[in-house]
Design goal:
Layout lengths: L1 H18 L6 H4 L9 E7 L8 E11 L1 H17 L4 E7 L3 E11 L2 E12 L2 E11 L4 H10 L1
Antiparallel strand pairs: 1-2, 2-6, 3-4, 4-5, 5-6
Length: 149
């Protein structure tokens, strides 16, 4: 019984980790670009997301240097080119903040998104990177859904 509980616990914890496996941004989520102790991480999976038509929401937020921001940007851009981006919306304001939403190629009926927001704060940047798995088919629909909730 104890072994069964241990196995179930492992599967519950490993599931969200494996979701974005193979993506370059997974390096960020694993703490290989920015140490984990400098990040605030959020992982949500299950019923809490059904109103948003999502099966997984995972985000990290951290303060980074310009050099670290460039590494994060490079990871996001590698995924954009490697995983057949189907839609991309970006916005940059005077080099002090930027927002990027990328829809990757669908996995069956599941649509995958990477969202990144970066805002300058003195000499550092506050960066948020989000990975979403959803049944929502476009970035426009995803944005509408967030704005309506």
């Amino acid at each position: 019984m104890k072994q069964l509980l241990t196995t179930l616990l492992f599967l519950l914890l490993a599931g969200p980790l494996a979701a974005q496996q193979g993506l370059a941004v997974n390096e960020l989520f694993c703490g290989n670009i920015i140490p984990r102790e400098r990040m605030v991480e959020t992982r949500v999976r299950g019923r809490m997301l059904t109103d948003y038509k999502m099966s997984l929401f995972r985000s990290v937020k951290c303060k980074v240097s310009k050099e670290e921001l460039e590494k994060i940007n490079a990871a996001v851009h590698r995924d954009m080119t490697s995983y057949k981006t189907t839609e991309c919306i970006g916005d940059e304001r005077h080099g002090r903040s930027s927002t990027l939403m990328v829809q990757l190629a669908a996995k069956g009926n599941t649509y995958c998104y990477i969202c990144q927001k970066a805002e300058a704060e003195g000499k550092q940047w506050v960066v948020t990177v989000i990975y979403i798995e959803s049944t929502v088919k476009t970035i426009t629909e995803l944005k509408k859904m967030f704005n309506n909730k």
